[in-house]
Amino acid sequence: IFLMAAKVIILSLFCFAVVQSQVDLTLVPNASGSDVVKAVVSKIETARLFPTDHRLLRRIAYVESLDGEDTRAFRDGYHGGIWQVNRATLIDTQNLSAHPGLVSLYDKVQAYFGIDWRFVTWEDLRMPLYSGLAARIYLWSVGGIPLAGEIDAQATYWRTSYNGTAKDFATLVKALEKDEECNIDVDLIFVLDSSGSIGRGNFQSVREFVKNFIMSGLTIREDEDQVGVIVFSDSAQVVFNLNAYQNQAQLLSAVDSIPYIAGGTNTDAALRQLIDEGFTVGGGARLDSQTVLRVAIVMTDGKSNDPSDTLIAAAHVHEFNPAILVYVVGVTDSVNQEELNAIATSPELVAHLESFDNSLLTEYQEEQSYEICVKASSPVDVGEALNGTLEQGEQARFQLDIPVVGLTIHLHVEAGRVVMYASTEIPNPNSALHDWKLDCLIACDFFVDPQGLDIVQTPVTVDNTEQQPQVNESSNLTNFTLFLVTEGKEENTSFMVDTTFGDTSTPKACEPSCTCTNSTELRRLSEAVEQLEKGFDTLHRTTNRIYTLLTQQNEEVKEKLTEVGEKLESVQEDIRILQDSNDDLFRRHLRDDAMEMASTEQGLSSINPCKRQAERSNTSGFYWTRNTIGHPVPVYCDMERVCCGESGAWMRVAHINMTDSTHSCPHGFSVIAT
């Protein structure tokens, strides 16, 4: 009984769904949860319609409605949604006379999201995306959002400009931040301007910035976060490589010893050294396949010796490895903005700090830590294999350029359980927003066909003109990107990801929502069944011994035995139900597998079909027989084929070595053919 149940249950585990249609809960009324909120925020940030909100939009969702999970979030008669936007607030976002700048914003919202904001109703805000957009448009019209590190200042801003209630904003936000801690390992290189225009006093503040960043945002260990430092003035030099220090105390001491040099500002030399030595294996950097985030923080006054050479060197950094996130901190208010924007990965990663007091250090560090944690993924070339290990809830992110011929993602789970989300729209897909989802225990895959995609990605801006991505004829790549997020669902989960050109996905011969078992799965299934058979044999012997002992005890024990027997009968009935619902796929795999084994040189030398009389009306499925020592053994009976004459019978394929003339058919069976 238990073995049959195990076979049915194992089959169901192999048949996890592969969701190939898009899932977008941001447009589902009353949808809630942290993944829904993160999807809305990611959509809005990916559109690049607004300046940074310093995490305030994400925080308001939690403070106002616990991400929509508060019982009052979608109360009758109130339609403000997750962000609890009042009717008057929505009307204010549609007031063109009070906010003339809304006209151009409306055009951008309609172009990217397909929403004409002039006709949005309060009832529409029950959809999370509409509620989030209403809150963000309103915050944009108010302006002056404090930095993320200024939680108390954000609390005051929220209370006076958004809500006006007495909720404990700071306490709720700190709980949210703790729940969303960053777990991505980082290779981080600081590129520090040590020129004469910085000055010795400011350079000491730069050292303090680096130390505070290390102490509050990183875990310095061999298999976690690594930090390197490059300084530049007339020339550039590596102070220490990424793998030079494997504990925080030694690293902080090394930062204190970073020399102040004075002299010129040879920024282009520092950027070249960042690539030529900093982010190399020789410089201590880990491989792309190790799912480690690479970040550079350039701190300069922006007065390079040769701005044109600096622009060329910056472009080379971005071309060398587009996944390196380059942040720029302008040390003074007298900077070359074009140069800073060119050095940074994107303009929003440029900050201006007129002074280096402790509060600004803390605030900017928090902004950087959040950006590092949730907005980056490791680049992967098609054909490159990736290995990773994840704890429960931990994520690894990747991105691939989609080739013209498409690509196939193969996910292999080596231990535990992994769920993969994929998107062509946002860099951090999740359960609420994705184009594909893989959830399997062994192996599953999906094919990305660029011809069949309705992709919404941020247009490329050239000379202030938006241009949609095109096919790169020289590299046979489209300008579209596929973002992958793998999330561990159990402790000590390990996985491998293979990518191939074209459609090499497993043919789906069962239901459209089901991944068929392949040969690897069948072998593992067979091994699992073999272990269960051994366990069943042990259980059978143990049960007999227990029964013998129990029958010698008093009536109370016998009553307990009867109770156990009744429960077993209930289990047996459940198994019968599972047996009856067992699908043709499993029967077909077992039958084909048996025939294949028998036909190989490694298999048994022949197959002897044997028969046993039974009622023709019996259904196909597993039936119990007993082996030579009397133990029950499950066999598959195919009642769909009449093989023993018109009188009717059922057949089982038995593996019997018929080359031995002394070997006869088992008791209860008769030979049909040899």
- Main sheet specs: 7 strands, mixed
Mean pLDDT: 75
Helix/sheet category: alpha+beta
**Number of distinct beta strands:** 26
Residues in β-strands, percent = 15-25%
Could you say which overall geometry the principal axes of the C-alpha atoms support? globular
Low-confidence stretches: 1-20, 455-475, 509-522, 581-591, 593-616, 642-653
Spatial extent as radius of gyration: 32 Å
Structure annotation, total helices: 17
> Ends: how far apart?
32 Å
Residues in helices, as a percent range: 25-40%
Topology:
Elements: H1 2-14, E1 18-19, E2 23-24, H2 34-47, H3 56-65, H4 87-93, H5 102-113, H6 128-142, H7 151-161, H8 169-179, E3 186-193, H9 200-217, E4 226-232, E5 236-240, H10 248-256, H11 267-278, E6 293-300, H12 307-320, E7 325-330, H13 337-343, E8 350-352, H14 358-374, E9 378-379, E10 386-390, E11 395-403, E12 407-415, E13 418-423, E14 433-434, E15 436-440, E16 443-448, E17 460-462, E18 465-467, E19 471-472, E20 477-488, E21 493-501, H15 519-550, H16 555-580, H17 584-599, E22 607-612, E23 621-626, E24 632-637, E25 650-655, E26 670-671
Parallel strand pairs: 3-4, 3-6, 6-7, 7-8, 9-11
Antiparallel strand pairs: 1-15, 2-14, 4-5, 10-21, 11-20, 12-16, 12-21, 13-15, 13-20, 17-18, 19-20, 22-25, 22-26, 23-24
Helix pairs in contact: 1-15, 1-16, 2-3, 2-6, 4-6, 9-10, 9-14, 11-12
Describe it.
It contains 17 helices and 26 strands. Strands 1, 9, 11, 13, 15, 19 and 20 form a 7-stranded mixed β-sheet that branches. Strands 5-4-3-6-7-8 form a 6-stranded mixed β-sheet, sandwiched between helices. A hairpin with a 5-residue loop joins strand 23 and strand 24. The radius of gyration is 32 Å and the shape is globular.
